[in-house]
Amino acid sequence: MELNFYLTLLLGFVSFVTFSLFFLFYRHRSQFTGNNLPPGKVGYPVIGESYEFLATGWKGHPEKFIFDRMTKYSSEVFKTSIFGEKACIFAGAACNKFLFSNENKLVTAWWPSSVNKVFPSSMETSAKEEAKKMRKMLPNFMNPQALQRYIGIMDTIAQRHFADGWENKKEVEVFPLAKNYTFWLAARLFVSLEDPKDVDKFGDPFQLLASGIISMPIDFPGTPFYKAIKASNWIREELYKIIKQRKIDLAEGKASPTQDILSHMLLTCDEEGTYMKEMDIADKILGLLIGGHDTASATCTFIVKYLGELPHIYDAVYKEQMEIANSKAPGELLNWDDLQKMKYSWNVAQEVLRVAPPLQGAFREALQDFVFNGFTIPKGWKLYWSANSTHKSAAYFPEPQKFDPTRFEGNGPAPYTFVPFGGGPRMCPGKEYARLEILVFMHNLVKRFKWEAVIPDEKIVVDPLPMPAKGLPIRLFPHKKA
Q: φ and ψ at 385, to 5 degrees?
């Protein structure tokens, strides 16, 4: 009799679990039914297709998630569920044009809620609202006219970077060095941080932060998300100390009001005459340092990869850069005119941005119900555009796996097909800054070295940025000095 009781109890428990799972699946799937929704599948309750979405990147082919479903559903728009949200993937040039052209009309920027936890604002606003404020402020520093005065500083830092990290070494690991270079530049130009020791102490926290921004939002010790939150808090506290000291230096005349973005933020008030609080400035500087650090370092790394693999492209870049180097007087730094002559080098960099876009894509949110491509998109659904959906499509770039800088000669790619910096009102405001730091890197690199990969065909992972799995170790061959 006692055995029957336990069997009955077990049967009841199994029935309860089965019913609960059935209910969860039914409720999950019922949220994605409606008149004229795009085709697609929505995966499991809560996690949806998040794992598949991320796993294709971990395996080095983030475009596979999109292309497989485009083929299956014969559609450039399909529904899914990622990061706990009802979502649609918008793939292709027409989709890019629609989203970029309807910013703040039919769609608006959106980030997963995890981003607000990693980048907590000291203000009672979301990361989205704070980003809007930053976009209004940045043009004063990120336009070509303003950036011209920084080229000499960039060249000086690049020379010091190569002297410290590359010269007199037989082998180096490129990705960590590229991150050091781009962060050194950002730290110098945004907050006037120059001492390499001060720069280095931010290295590991920024790596943890970058790795956990777009990860499973599990706030538990040991997870990438937990580490990212801890790293973010530590960096903000360190920036707060720098900001407090800068206020003192400005008051005592030891710092210039125009020396960097930090001084500008401290001395600029809004329409009501209110100045930003120190922690609010720390939040914004943190976002700028991430934006000016990770994306460009990934691009610099892949430039090294492809120049090492393709000698004929290396030779053409070397020829262009040495013509500029040989035109300079001893000790003369690069200037704006020099960078304007680096046309082929920039074509190479753009082709790197095509095959390995650091920005894989971004989210929007539907502000109202609308119809696109014959499908109804409900208000509140999240919409994801993907750079890879055009960059790696033969419909827009013939032989997309072939590395070919000539794609960017003449008029270049068709509109809305090459989108490494996004597009429309939300195009990356640091686009020109990125161009300058990448070209300065290329100039200082090729005039010093040729190289070869230590690990041929090294695996590439995307997490969330593309990167060589082992950091791209290379063997250096310095040029003989005349």
A: -100, 145
Termini Cα distance of the chain: 97
Asked if 87 and 79 count as a contact pair (C-beta separation under 8 A), the reply is: yes
Half-sphere exposure of residue 141: CA atoms within 13 angstroms, side-chain side? 21
Name the nearest CA neighbour of 383 among 393, 391, 373, 392.
373
Contact 257, 140 (CB under 8 A): no
Q: Which residues contact 49 (CB under 8 A, 6 or more apart)?
A: 41, 42, 43, 65, 80, 81, 82
Rg (CA), the chain: 25
Residue matched to tokens 């100045």? 275
Burial class (CB in 10 A: 0-12, 13-18, 19+), 345: buried
Distance CA 212, CA 386 (A): 20
Contacts of 26 (CB under 8 A, 6+ apart): none
pLDDT tens digits for range 389-446: 999 999 999 999 999 999 999 889 999 999 998 887 767 777 888 999 999 999 999 9
Across the range 373-384, mean pLDDT stands at 93
Global pTM reads: 0.86
Give pLDDT tens digits for 38-58.
998 876 666 778 888 888 888
Beta pairing partners, 466: 462
